[in-house]
Amino acid sequence: MDDGYHRLKQGSPLHAVTNKSKESFSIKAIDENSEQSVLQFQKVALDAINHNDGSYEIVMKHKSTQFSVSLYDIIAIRRA
């Protein structure tokens, strides 16, 4: 399958996948302590939020306040 759920679950150079189960997982920045890594993760985070193909639900979005601006640092996803 090549839907959004499975693409996000594979990870990428811009995001890591954690808390994997059969029906859900979380995506986050590769290095959550690096502002640059978290900035790069915004592309994946915003794409997941704004371009959901219906194959998943976003069950949690968290923004970090550790950096100069508020940035998404983790998103929890469940199969629709």
Features of the shown structure:
globular, alpha+beta, 4-stranded antiparallel sheet, 80 residues, 28% helix
How big is the Rg?
A: 12 Å
Question: Looking at the structure, what is the overall shape?
Answer: globular
How many β strands by DSSP?
4
Helix/strand structural class: alpha+beta
Query: How confident is the prediction overall: mean pLDDT?
Result: 94
Main pleated-sheet profile = 4 strands, antiparallel
Helix % is: 25-40%
| Succession of helices and strands | HEEHEE
Brief synopsis:
The protein is an alpha+beta fold and 80 residues long. 28% of the residues lie in helices and 32% in strands.
In terms of topology, how is this protein built?
Blueprint: H1 4-9, E1 16-18, E2 24-28, H2 35-50, E3 56-64, E4 71-79
Antiparallel strand pairs: 1-2, 2-4, 3-4
Structure description:
It is a single chain. By secondary structure, the protein is of the alpha+beta class. It has a domain at 35-79. The chain contains two helices and four strands; from the N terminus they run αββαββ. The protein has helices at residues 4-9, 35-50, and strands spanning 16-18, 24-28, 56-64, 71-79. The radius of gyration is 12 Å and the shape is globular.
